[in-house]
Every structure is written in structure tokens, then in C-alpha cells.
Amino acid sequence: xxxxxxAVRRSERARSAILTATTELIHELPYAKLSIEAxxxxxxxxxxxxxxxxxxxxxxxxxxxxxxxxxxxxxGLPDTGDIRADLRLLLxxxxxxxxxPGVEGFLRAMYVEIQQDSDLGExxxxxxxxxxxxxxxxxxxxxxxxxxxxxxxxxxxxxxxLVGPIQYRWSLGVGGLDDAYADALLEAVMATAM
Amino acid sequence: xxxxxxAVRRSERARSAILTATTELIHELPYAKLSIEAxxxxxxxxxxxxxxxxxxxxxxxxxxxxxxxxxxxxxGLPDTGDIRADLRLLLxxxxxxxxxPGVEGFLRAMYVEIQQDSDLGExxxxxxxxxxxxxxxxxxxxxxxxxxxxxxxxxxxxxxxLVGPIQYRWSLGVGGLDDAYADALLEAVMATAM
Amino acid sequence: xxxxxxAVRRSERARSAILTATTELIHELPYAKLSIEAxxxxxxxxxxxxxxxxxxxxxxxxxxxxxxxxxxxxxGLPDTGDIRADLRLLLxxxxxxxxxPGVEGFLRAMYVEIQQDSDLGExxxxxxxxxxxxxxxxxxxxxxxxxxxxxxxxxxxxxxxLVGPIQYRWSLGVGGLDDAYADALLEAVMATAM
Amino acid sequence: xxxxxxAVRRSERARSAILTATTELIHELPYAKLSIEAxxxxxxxxxxxxxxxxxxxxxxxxxxxxxxxxxxxxxGLPDTGDIRADLRLLLxxxxxxxxxPGVEGFLRAMYVEIQQDSDLGExxxxxxxxxxxxxxxxxxxxxxxxxxxxxxxxxxxxxxxLVGPIQYRWSLGVGGLDDAYADALLEAVMATAM
DNA sequence: TATTAAACGAGACGGTACGTCGGGTCTTCGG
DNA sequence: CCGAAGACCCGACGTACCGTCTCGTTTAATA
Lengths: 194, 194, 194, 194
Hints:
By secondary structure, chain A is mostly helical. Chain A is 71% helix and 0% strand. Chain A has 9 helices and no strands.
């Protein structure tokens, strides 16, 4: 019986070669053409070495994405004291990230996998979505402290109002995602939040 | 060179058997396990008959979904004269549809395909998304006429504020999608729209 | 129930187009690539028109071959009065025919089909092989009459000795089939036959 | 690019299962119905495992035939000192082999493939035909040494005279292949050879 | 000459098998 | 024991043809 692999003996060389190969292939191929076999070949690694450490292709892609950065916006969010300016940066930055080729491929891939693999969905929420949401929530709370937002503001809902429309347009390919959209969205949400 | 098939001679029996089989299998299997081969076998049809009329599995699934109904909310939207009540129905109904087993499988499948197939994405937008958005826009315009909404309202943005957060939560599995969420979302948007 | 087709109403145009197309394709393609579909397309004919009049691809090919000539040597055989000269012509002519591109493709095809389809084998024997053998037998009998061959000669066996080695070498690709071989073979057989 | 497979790591279990399955199916089915798919299924093997090691169905069948025995007559030939007796055994044995169900299916299949695949034809000649012909030639040479045959005998031609008529009758289904035919043939050839 | 039943061209259909790709497992060898 | 290599069993892909079955449309015998 194999039992779990011994993480101590894990080859760092293999691990990073796999993630690098995955990143390259995500940028070169449509996601449907990305195969474990291709990753292994590109990384100069046996397939078993991938299967030993990751449960699915989506998990490899997820790790490769994490290796690149810590998500579409990064976990941090500036606090200049001006809530409107900071959120503008957030929304414009989100749109820019979703459009950037280095990121879009990864995110589309994650969208695909999340619809089909609830374990991976949970992982995505814990490792990427929750930190991002927490960071924004923190900034909104600071805005309340600073008297720039209503004290009784529903933070979760405000967050959804800021992020949801952008994700919705992006994921369905609706288009019209530019700075002007970000600004208009921000003004609409600020109108309810002050 | 084969050229395009002659649609006049198409077998209605085969067409509807294929869509019915697809619908059944979408409900029985995880989408990743749905194969053209399985659809053909269940429908009692040769694979070629599927490939003759649809360019991809996603296109078959899309047609099967259309055959079931005309989308998550249907193209129509009530107009009782009370914009708040009508939109409440819309949002609650959207959430209910996204959760209903008969619909969720189809929509997850479409989300998967849209990320990977831009032709299918365009089809989805034209045949499902645009009608839905047009219907809501019409209702908002009527609300403006009735003096229940601000005349200078940005309709597209308002639409995104209503629909985006729900789609966003659903597609990423964030949870918390219930009538209370729908109502809170509606109140927030109405606050900006009146 | 369809019943047998009415041969009177048969389209001569279709019949000859099919046989011509078959002959062309036999010359252009390896036999394994020759399909009924290709024949029908080349002939500008519906597949059903082929299936209506021939039971199998082999039968079409057989008819196409008959249409070209009446076999590798033709049913006739000269009788100059000199049995050795006449048989030399026969053997040299057989080898020439088996090597001629216009004939070889057909004969290889028939060899293939005869191994697998006993009905077609019977047809081949009756329509091609038997006449050929009868013609040679007649000539041998004339040779006996003329006192050039032993009166107690086993005609069937002599025939096999003349024809068998050539067919054997040709069908197995042994090579060495030329006029010199024909002549040597003839001398050997004549030695037993006089 | 895959490159050639590594023969060292080849599974003997799979190899012999494939050849056994092929032998069984050759005996059960007409050759036209024998598919790679059926062989793989019967052998409990993936199709790729067949395609990895053999270039064509004919090549598999050929190897399966070799696995059974070393050809229609076997490479050896007795030398009792009596050339006539030994050749009688050869011819009668050839006819028996060609008629034996366990062999006939294989040989018909090889005849079919050889007409269409020159690589396989070459293989057949090298591995089966040449050894058989060499063995007979050796025996004839011994007969010359023993003074039972003419010293100036054309060995290749004599060989063709012995074997050709039988192969010819068999391959075209002429019939009449029995011990009497073998004996008559032998006497005719011996008449030229002594 | 008009009628009419068939053969015809076209090609969609339910199937079988093709040869290929990739998934996930297993085995062998080297470090 | 991990890792590389890659063979293995398997399921599915998308394609080619099979032989059957409609469809209109000629077309030729007969009424």
C-alpha cells in the first residue's frame, strides 16, 4: 500500500519545473488542450510525480497560479485615507488584471474547474477569494471608522456590489470592461454606501 | 468535400432524441463525464448524426438547454406597475433558478464551455443573455416612465448591479444565496436608482 | 418488399459510369482504399444504384475487369500448328499481363476477394478461369492430335504445370518473372509432355 | 514526438495474449470481420498496445501464425535417402496443411494482406517462404549428390513445378487437391528431373 | 401523348471500426 | 524511497464507410 508521499523528500526541482511548465502552457494553449502529459513532458518529469503531489490538473493549475502572484488583485489594498480613491484603484486594477494575458488564462481555467470540482472550488475560495474579500472588508471598515461610509453598511453586500458586476461581465464575455465602467460602478455603489 | 448538410432532410426524431438524451445525462452525470458517445448511445443515434449538426459538445448542451426553457428567468418579466415588487420577483426567481437541479447542471456546463469556446460564448450571449438583459432593461425603462426610478438612471449599470452579485456568488460557490440576500441586494440597488 | 430490380429499366449510363469509375480508381488507389462511396461519387451515381445491381464491392470490380478485357490472356489461344511456339506465346503473354499495370491491380483485387468470398470465387472460376483453362486444354488436345504431345498426357496436370508456377510466383511476389523464366518453364513441361 | 517504444519493457503477457486472441479469432471469424478492436477486447488489452508493437493488422496475424508453427510445412524436410518418397511426403503434407482448418485461415489471411502490403509481403517471403524454399532446395541438392536427380537440374524451377500447381489450385479454389493429385504431380516433375 | 411506376441522384441515418490522444496506474531502473 | 521514464488498460475522440432508408426527379414502358 503506498500511503501518502513523504513531503520531506520531495524534489523542489521537480515541483517548480512542473509549475513553470504549467504556467508556460497555460499561456500557449487553450485550456482544453492542456494535458497532464504535456505538463510532464515540458517539465521533464514523470507523470507519476505530478499525480503523487496533486489530485487533479486543476490543482496543479491552481498552484501554478498562486506561484505567479497571490491572485488577481493581490491580498493587500492601499489605505490612503481616501476610500473613494482606494476603491477606484481596486476596481480599475481588477479589470486590468482580468484582461492581462498573464492572468486571464489562469482565471478562465479556474472558472472551468470550479464549476466541476467542488474540492477545488473550496480551495480557491479559501486561498484566493476569502483573503481578497477580507482585505476589501477591512478597507471598508476603515472607511466607516473614518466617517467616510455609513456605519450600518452591509459590508458583504457592498463588496458583492463592487466586485460582482465586473466578474459577471468578465465571466460571460459581456465586454465593456474599462476604467470608465469601473468609475461608474464605483459611483453607484458609493451612492448607497455613504 | 462534403459541404454543409441539407437541413430539409434532417430527422426530427434524431434531433429531439439527441437533445432529450443530453438533458437526461446532464442531470445524471457530472459534466466532465458527459461524452458525445454517451449521448449518441442514449439517443440511439450514430455519432456522425451529432457531428453533422453540432460543432461541439457544448453546442449540443446549449441547444438541449434552450429546448428545456428559454433560460434561467425566461425572456419575460412581469410588469405589475410596482417596480420594487417586480424586481424582487426577478431576483428571487434568478436565485431559485440557479439552485434548481434541472437548471444548475446546464448553467454550470455553459459556464465551463463559455470560458473555452468564444463562438459558443457569442451564441450564449445572443440567444440567452441579450434577451434577458433586454427584458430587464425594458422593465426599468417602464419604471422610469412611471416615475418610480430616476430618469437619468444608467440602465446597463443598474442591470449589472442587480444581476452581477448573484451570478458572481453562484459561479464561485460563495453561498448565501437566498431570498434574504435577494431582498437586501434589491434594497441597495433601489437606493441608488430612485 | 422491394423484390428484384427490373433489369429492363436499368440505366446503361449509370452502369458504365460505375464500371469506368471503378477502373479508374483501381488504377489510382491501393485496393484497400477503394470504397463503394468513392466509386459512387466518381461515377456521379447514388450508392443505392450500386447496391441495387451488385452484391459486393468485389462483384463490381470483377465486372469492371471483365469490361476491360476478358481476362489475363483472353479466352482465345493461337493455333499455329506449332505447340511449343503457341505455348511460349501463352506463357510469355501471361507474365506480361500479370505485370501490366492496367491488369495487375484488378487481379490483385480479385485475389483478395476470392480468399474471402466464395461466391465471388465461384464466379471468377466460371467466367474467367474455366474459359482460360478450356482454351488451353483444347490447344493441348490439338497438339496430341498433331502428334506433338503424348497421347496419354494428363491435360489438367500439364495445364497446372504451365500456369501454376507463374501464378504462384506472382501472387507471392517471388519475382523473377520474365521471358527467360517462361521459356525455361515451357521446356521443363514439354520434356514431360512429349 | 514519441519515438520507438522500448522493447525491453514490453509486456510479455500482453504480447502473448494478443497473439492467442488473434489465433482464436482467425479460427472463429471470416478474415474480413477480424478487427484490431476485437483482438484487443479478446486479449484484454488496450488498442494502443497493439498499435505500439505492430504496424498493421496483417503484421499481427503474421506473428500469430509464426507463433503457431513455423509455416505450412515447417522448415524441415526429411531425408530418408529416397528422394521420391521424401518429396511425396512434402507434397501430400503441403496439401494437408493447406486444407487443415488451423492453417487455412491464416494462409488465406496472409494471401489477402500480401496482395495489398508489400512490406508484409517481403516479411512473409523472408520469414516463411525463403526458409521453406531453401529446405526443399537442400533436399534436391542431396538428391543430385545421391545420383537420384539430374546433376544439371534447375533447382528453382523444379521447386516451382512442385509447389506452384498446388498453391495455384488452392489460392484460386480450383479444387481437386488430394493425395492422388500430389502423386501425379510428383511423377510428372520426377520425369523431368531424373 | 399522357400516365405511372421504376430507377435514379442525393444524402441522412444507425452502426462498426479506425487510428490517436490522454487519463490514471503500474513497473523498472538510477540516484 | 523519490523521481524519470514510459508501458499498460481504458474511454473517448472525430473520421471514414458500411449498407439501408427516404426523398424528390428523371425516364421509359404502357395505356
